[in-house]
Design a protein that fits this description.
mainly alpha, about 0% strand, 5 helices
Amino acid sequence: MNLKFDPVDVVGAGCGVAIARVFRLFATIFMGCGIASWSIHTTRMFGEPWEPFVYFISGPVHLLSIWICFSLPTLIEGIIMIVRSDEPVGLRDVVFATILGLWCMLGYRSEMKSPALSWTLWIILSAMLATATWFWSQWSRNRWMQEIAELKAENDLRRQELQEKFGTVAPNMYSNDET
């Protein structure tokens, strides 16, 4: 089969993957640190309607604390993990975000007016992030499984048509499911 090189497709796919990975990296960092920032400042967020947004956006600043000796290597490892990973958003991203949030929480624990409330809120929000990520991965897996099942059904119909038309049996017609 002679396929022509399509530079637009190749470069476009490569740029799309690179942009998606950078977005995924920033989203993971902002989610982990933003959840921690909300948890740290939970008692102060009710003055103005824009304050939760500001605390969420300024979340990565909370990595700059006495715990930077732990948060910086974690951040570097997370960057390497996301750049090299071929899998979609998954458990590793949630663990990375949660660990970054933990370093933020530990670094700014002196600013918590109500530590029990802050830690409880951080645990609940981190669990919600993990649950949402799990549901997202299940949804995307089920979507692809449904498309594969439709393709298998179409292939079976095509094999039956070929058998009726030519009287031959396709070699893979009676094989086990290979997916």
